[in-house]
Structure formats: C-alpha cells, structure tokens
Amino acid sequence: MFGRHVAGDAELVNDFPHTLMSEAPLEDGNALPDERLKVLFAYCHPTLVLETRVALTLGMLGGLTNDQIAGALRVPPAIVAERLAGARAKIKKAGIPFGVPRDGSLPERLADVLATVYLIFNEAYAGDGQLAAEAIRLGRMLAELLPDESEVHGLLALILLNDGRRTSRYRHGELVLLDDEERTLWDRERVAEGEQHLARARALYGHGAYVLRAEIASVHMAEPVDWPELVALYTELARLVPSGAVELNRAIAVAEVAGPEPALVIVERIEFEPSELDHYCSLHSTRADLLRRLGRTIDARYAYGRALQLTRSEPERRFLKRRIAELPPPAAADCEAFWDNALDRIKAAAEADEIEDAEAPAEDARAQRRRLPADAPDPAAHLEHVQPQLAKRERPPHGADH
After folding, report:
1. How much is the CA Rg of the chain, to the nearest whole Å?
2. DSSP state letters, 51-110
3. DSSP label at 175?
4. Which of 43, 153, 161, 171 could join 194 via S-S bond, C-beta 3.0 to 4.6 A?
5. Rounded to a whole number, what is the distance in angstroms from the first to the last CA of the chain?
6. Residue 165: strand pairing partners
7. Is the peptide bond before 224 cis (omega within 30 degrees of 0)?
8. Which residues contact 178 (CB under 8 A, 6 or more apart)?
9. 170 pairs with which residues across the strands?
10. Is the model's pTM score more than 0.85?
11. Are 317 and 310 in contact (CB under 8 A)?
12. Residue 77 · residue 43 · CB < 8 Å
C-alpha cells in the first residue's frame, strides 16, 4: 500500500502533500495512481544517488521497513537509515517537485525512474521474491500510466520474462544453467505477459536499451536459441550502452557462433581494460569456461578460483567448485602453455602500467602472482604431475652431442 512507509520516516512522509498519502491500492477505482507516479519521479530525481532512490522507492511506495530494505540490498540497516535521512535533507533543501515532467526533460527523467526499477529487479534476480514483486508492480504501474513509452514496456517485458524463470533457476538449492532449466517449471502466464509488453514496445517502434534487453531475454528462451541473432542484438546494445557487462554477454554469444577462441579475445580485452567488472564473478567464470573449452585447464583452474573468491552466492560457489573438480589433471603441454600465457599477461600488464617496475622480472612475477586469487592452487602443486614428462622432453636423444 502507498501509505505504508519506512519505519522512522514519518517526518519525511508528513512533508508530502496530503493527496500523496492515499491508502488506496493502484487497482482500486478510488486510487490515485497519478499521484504515485509523481512521487516515483520525485524519489528518482537525479540529485539523489541511485542507491538512495532505490531505498526511498522500496520504503515509501513498496512499504518495506528499514530492516527489510537492508536485507534485500545486503547492507546494514544503519546505512539504509543514513541514506534516507540524507535524502530527506536533500529533498527539503533542493525543493524537489512532485510531478511528472511535462517539458523536454521527460525522457531523461524517465530514464532515471527506469534505472531505479531495473536495479530493484537486479537485486531480486538471485531469488528475492519480495523485491521481484515490487519491481513488477512498479513496472505495471508505469506501463498503465505511460502506455505510449516503448522503454517502459521494454523494461516490464524484461522483468516479466526473467521472473517467469525464477522457479527453474535453482534445483535443490543448486544453480541451474539456462540450457538445463526445466521449462515446464516456467510461469507461462508471466512469460506470456512479458511477450505482450515486448510486442507493445515493438508496435511503438522501440529500439532503446530496455527493449533490446527484452528482445535478448526472449531469444534466449526460444528453442532452439538463435545465437547469430543474439550476437546482432548484443552488438546493437553495446552501441547504445557501451559497457563491460554487455561485451561479456556478447562474448558468450560469439562463443556459440564462432567458437571459444574469438570469444576469449573479447573477454580478455575486458579484463585488461579498466571497467566495472574488475570484481565481477561472471567475468572470471566466463573466461574460465572458455579456457576449459580450449583445453587450457591450468588457466581455467585459476580463473575459476578467482570467480570463486568473488561470488557471494552459495549456489554459485558450489557450482564453481564442481567445475574445478571436473577439470582433468594438467599435462606437460598445459603447464608450458600456462607459463607462456602468464609471461604474455605480465608483459601486457607492464605495457598498461598495471605493474610499476617492468624492468625487474622477479618483481613482475611476484606482482603477477598477487593478481591471482588467494585460494588459487599453488603452481608448484602441479609439478608432481608433469616433472616426469618434462624430463623426457628435455632429455637429449640417444647419440646426440652433449
């Protein structure tokens, strides 16, 4: 209900116009949905940071308490309270208006609102049904009140299509890849609703980022998957919103079309360029999987170890540990290739000024070792497997000059 709010923020609520305090749900004929939209635009004002917008929206429009918001966003309740107090002061000081922009600023302001709802759903993706329900409710409200905005329908389609797979993404607590999901577990009504909103976005000639993401989600759920179409969609999305995350997903699609080698080139370019993915588990797990497919098991083991270090999800940790356990023991050629590749990476890092003293090989090696995950296997642990083979390779042939 609209009237429910974050505990401890009655002072903030009392600063709002009385008409914004309606208890009526959106579906009621007596509801004031236009007022809710005005409040949503105020909470998503660009002067407020994204995390604060999310907390305000969840609390004031979603009715979540501070503790519930903190649990959903995985931050201490004190941080939530601090963000809300700061927002209260900023709203008063800046005189943020409650209303839907009617001038040329609407597209930019709407983008702020959609980004907030999108982040709420992203936080829900790992399994928080309450947050997912809030994102869907907000998306439906926006679609009802702004029916001619293609990006609104695109975002709602994206949320519904992904949420329709919620019950199939985990099996007995274990992570299930999309290809292995039990499609009979999908929420067909939710998926159908998502496709309807995607069709509406197409009818509005929508080509924005959320429409493209919804198109991508729809193609991923088709059987069989049209991988060349996904490469094209990700390429267009990368043009609209250049980011490491989009490039990473494009690499996964490229691997299905052209094989793991060209995909690995894309992934390693992301890894060596400054990006928001430096501490992103999926970057390293994707690289590990491509290396595994190329037979570079030692490189794959280190990359899986790095991903394992970064993830907060227990199902993901178990999945990555299974992947590591499934890797075969390294052969001599694998070790040789691993160290050749490590030297190449040291040189590349030095050229990119990631290692300060490129003239000191020993220091370079130590720096490169520090870049590996703390729980990565010690390179020396592989020697017992390969020393006999290396000895044979180094032994001169019979009768050769010594």
Report:
1. 26
2. HHHHHHIIIIIT---HHHHHHHHTS-HHHHHHHHHHHHHHHHHHT---S---STTHHHHH
3. E
4. 161
5. 87
6. none
7. yes
8. 165, 220
9. 175
10. no
11. no
12. no
Tokens of 211: 């429409």
Q: Do 247 and 266 touch, CB atoms closer than 8 A?
A: yes
| 175: β partners | 170
Instruction: State phi, psi for 46 to the nearest 5 degrees.
Output: -65, -15
Is there a contact between 5 and 68 (Cβ–Cβ < 8 Å)?
A: no
Q: What whole-number distance in Å separates Cα of residue 301 and Cα of residue 323?
A: 9
Report how far residue 59's alpha carbon sits from residue 68's, in angstroms, rounded to the nearest whole number. 9
170 SS3 class: strand
Q: For residues 216 and 162, is the Cβ–Cβ distance under 8 A?
A: no
As a whole number of angstroms, the distance between CA 131 and CA 115 comes to: 15
Contacts of 346 (CB under 8 A, 6+ apart): 355, 364, 365, 367, 368
Which neighbouring-strand residues pair with 171?
A: 174
DSSP three-state, residue 357: coil
Report phi then psi at 275, rounded to 5: -155, 175
Residue type, 1: M
Q: How far apart are CA 297 and CA 263, in angstroms?
A: 17
Give the strand pairing for 170-171 and 174-175.
Answer: antiparallel
Question: H helices of 273-378, where?
Answer: 281-293, 297-310, 314-326, 332-351, 361-370
Phi and psi angles of residue 138, each rounded to the nearest 5 degrees, phi first: -65, -40
Distance of CA 147 to the CA centre of its chain: 28
Instruction: Measure the CA angle with vertex 316, ends 311 and 319; round to 5°.
Output: 135
